[in-house]
Design a protein that fits this description.
heterodimer; A: mainly alpha; Serine Threonine Protein Phosphatase 5, Tetratricopeptide repeat; four-stranded mixed beta sheet; 20 helices; 4 strands; 4% strand; elongated; B: Protein Transport Mog1p, Chain A; eight-stranded antiparallel beta sheet; two-stranded antiparallel sheet; 3 helices; globular
């Protein structure tokens, strides 16, 4: 029954999304922007001081990915979304956490988790999320929230509505706790969503991308739940204590707003794939170790539907199946490793995985030949001695 | 009435004692982690009351953030290494039948990533060894937990015996502590029996 209801609402979303655009109105007008903004009041100066201190900690964190090209790329997407004048002052920190999240400090420091980069499928979708965070900054939401409730010590997290998607228990999350002052209200979230849509409307990216993210999040949550043999439960309205609108709610109102201001035509899917290509193997490796079989299968399927089953994707899928290790999984894993090699995956680790899967399936002779090949290709591997021992068993 | 009160308070005392940390003196120690694991440490250790799992026992010298030996005593097929903090949303990988020695570091890494939020972890060196006379693996690793971002190093030995996973790990901050106490761990490992 619930599934039916979800489908009906999604259909409604799609209908809204693809209905002819009504006449453009002034919803696309962006608020005026002040460059090099400085805090003006006691409250705001205090917040900026805290945020500056947090940012110093963040800057030195071993979890920050410092690759120049990747950082430049994410910054470029932000700039293409919100405009060159607005984006210049923002510092982006890409942090290696395999869950979907991004956040913005009141002083203009933006945190992007690698799980977000793995999940969005185009520059337009990434731009929608980054634009949303930037909107909080531009609208000085932190300050307003602080004034409204000085005692607020709750946590900003996109995760709070995503619940089942993430394997990361955010309660212990220091990086999130750093953001403890920066919690926004549900109205502010909606306000930021809609301003983010205005940025998109003024950019070369299509505005519908913002709604699509939330649809994919719901689908991934369903896949995760199914993979764990749990019921999926979407909520149709936010609870009293929720600080984000529900995914479904967001998908609906964003699609509705997008139909009024479509923005550009090019979501830059290929550009996005090229932009994160170097780091995709790392993001995938982090994801498959989370023991989220259903959700990861969905993600891999999504990535494959955009780029085809590349060697990287096949290898990641094989690793995940081998890790779960049911007899049927080991057979599938061996197949995916072979497919990866056929698809041009040259890293010797594919031979390693193939050999180990076959060995666990009892196909010892073939296993040994694959493992021998691995050792020949990578004689200095950190596990060379252990693999050699398996060959000798 | 009085007798009952005395008995009750004694029971409470005993219960408190049973759950407190305790000193491990040098000399033979048996039934570690409620299993057939035994060892013969040549230095003093402290056993923590906190266990982390059904088949788990933790020893330390200066506190588990600074040097920590964890014994996983025979985790059976179908069970996770650690007690799951959030079984519904963050289930841990299970020990499966026919696991190879190279799967031991992999299951430890995955469990840590999920439960301890070790966003960055690498298995560094893996070589064959024997654990109490059984064929096993010795490996080193390094990781950063998200809550304190301290760079830690680890060293471990593990083996499958009768479809049960036996694993003993040593972890300490890479700066100062790891090297300070690693020899005590290595001595301990040479005395392990199953």
């Amino acid at each position: 029954m619930k599934a039916l209801l979800v489908r009906a609402i999604l259909a409604a979303v799609a209908a809204v999304a693809f209905s002819p655009a009504s006449a453009q109105n002034n919803t696309t007008a962006l608020p005026p922007y002040v460059p090099a903004y400085e805090p003006r009041t006691v409250d705001e100066r205090g917040q900026w001081m805290e945020a500056d201190e947090d940012e110093r900690t963040l800057r030195d964190s071993p979890l920050v990915i410092r690759d120049e090209a990747l950082n430049a790329y994410v910054k470029r997407v932000l700039c293409s979304t919100v405009g060159q004048d607005r984006c210049q002052g923002v510092r982006i920190y890409i942090v290696e956490v395999p869950a979907l999240n991004a956040s913005m400090r009141p002083n203009g420091a933006m945190v992007v988790w690698t799980g977000l980069l793995l999940r969005v499928r185009s520059e337009a979708e990434l731009g929608a999320v980054l634009g949303h965070e930037f909107a909080h900054f531009e609208l000085r939401h932190t300050l307003n929230a602080f004034k409204r409730a000085r005692s607020t010590t709750d946590v900003l997290a996109w995760l709070s509505v995503l619940g089942g998607i993430s394997n990361t228990d955010t309660s212990m999350n220091r990086l999130l706790l750093i953001g403890s002052f920066y919690r926004f209200s549900r109205d502010q979230e909606k306000e930021a969503d809609l301003l983010s849509l205005k940025y998109l409307a003024a950019s070369s990216y299509p505005t519908i991308a913002a709604s699509q993210i939330w649809q994919h999040m719901m689908e991934e949550a369903d896949a995760t739940a199914a993979g764990r043999k749990q019921k999926s439960h979407h909520r149709y309205s936010a609870g009293f204590f929720d600080d984000h609108p529900t995914d479904l709610n967001r998908a609906v109102y964003l699609a509705e707003a997008a139909s009024k201001a479509k923005g550009g035509n090019d979501p830059a899917t290929a550009g996005y794939q090229a932009g994160i290509a170097k780091f995709l193997p790392l993001f995938l490796a982090d994801q498959i170790k989370l023991n989220d079989f259903g959700g990861t299968e969905y993600l891999l399927g999504q990535l494959a539907s955009a780029a085809g089953w590349t060697g990287d994707l096949l290898f990641a899928r094989a690793e995940m199946y081998r890790m779960r290790g049911n007899p049927r999984d080991l057979v599938s894993a061996a197949q995916f490793y072979s497919d990866a090699i056929k698809a041009g995956y040259t890293a010797p680790e594919a031979r390693r995985g193939l050999g180990l899967s076959l060995m666990r399936s009892g196909q010892v002779t073939e296993a040994k030949s694959a493992l021998t090949e691995y050792l020949r290709l990578r004689p200095d591997a950190s596990d060379a001695k252990a693999i050699a021992a398996l060959l000798a068993y | 009435m009085n007798k009952t009160a005395v008995t009750l308070s004694l029971a409470v005392l005993l219960a408190t004692n049973a759950s407190a940390n305790s000193l491990i003196s040098p000399g033979p120690q048996s039934k570690i982690a409620r299993s057939s694991l035994s060892a013969n440490p040549s230095t003093e250790w402290n056993r923590l009351s906190e266990r982390g799992g059904k088949n788990v026992e933790i020893w330390t010298i200066d506190g588990d953030e600074l040097n920590k030996v964890t014994f996983f005593g025979g985790v059976p097929v179908g069970e996770p290494l650690l007690k799951e903090a959030d079984k519904k949303h963050a289930p841990l990988p299970r020990v499966t039948a026919n696991m190879l020695i190279t799967d031991i570091p992999a299951i430890l890494e995955s469990s840590y990533r999920i439960q301890l939020h070790t966003m960055r972890m690498s298995i560094d060196n893996q070589e064959p060894t024997t654990v109490g006379g059984h064929k096993g693996i010795k490996f080193t690793y390094s990781f950063v937990r998200e809550d304190d971002e301290v760079e830690r190093k680890g060293e471990a030995v593990g083996a499958f015996v009768g479809d049960r996973l036996y694993l003993v790990t040593y972890e300490a901050p890479a700066i100062n502590f790891f090297d300070k106490d690693v020899d005590k761990f290595r001595q301990l490992v040479t005395t392990l029996k199953l």
